[in-house]
Design a protein that fits this description.
Blueprint (H helix, E strand, L loop, with lengths): L1 E5 L2 E5 L6 E4 H9 L1 H13 L22 E4 L7 E5 L3 E4 L3 H10 L2 H36 L11 H9 L1
Antiparallel strand pairs: 1-2, 2-3, 3-6, 4-5, 5-6
Length: 163
């Protein structure tokens, strides 16, 4: 693994597969800053990348030994990245460029909006479920067998269950 510096960003690059390792803070900075994105794209375009593909598999991050999680970046990009939550992100060849292009085309905003819509839909589903439950509970309360009202007590309720 060779390490390259680009301003304050550092990459660990694999010479055999052209994969890149970027620590979490550096990756967040790249995602948030168009100038850094341009610098990274320029840097990656100048690299002599080997041709060929690599087998995709779950691999442990060497520093901590934990298996990295494979995730679709922003749950919508179509770019699968390997994430070590403690340390950073592994990009297969070409994936960092694809992530940056996704961000530049407004993909993050679209992904955020989709997530907000999903949350709103789930909230509405839960509200409907709560109303349905309250309605059913109200129906049971109106039935003397399910309530202590109307002269009925808990013992008579139990007797109706077994009687």
């Amino acid at each position: 693994m060779e390490t390259s510096l680009l301003g304050e960003a550092s990459f660990a690059a694999c010479a055999s597969c052209d994969g890149l390792w970027i620590d979490a803070a550096t990756f967040e900075n790249i995602c948030a800053d168009r100038e850094r994105q341009s610098a990274v794209l320029g840097f990656l375009a100048r690299r002599n990348a080997p041709l060929g593909s690599t087998k995709v598999s779950y691999v442990p991050y060497p520093a901590c030994g934990q298996l990295m999680n494979r995730n679709n970046f922003a749950r919508a990009s179509g770019v699968i990245v390997d994430i070590c939550k403690r340390n950073g992100v592994w990009f297969d060849a070409g994936d960092l460029q694809a992530v940056i292009e996704f961000i530049r085309k407004g993909g993050m905003e679209l992904a955020r909006q989709r997530e907000k819509n999903e949350l709103n839909n789930e909230r509405e589903r839960l509200r409907c479920e709560k109303r349905r439950f309250a309605t059913q509970a109200g129906q049971f309360a109106g039935d003397n067998r399910w309530s202590d009202e109307g002269g009925s007590d808990s013992r008579s309720f139990v007797r109706t269950l077994f009687g």
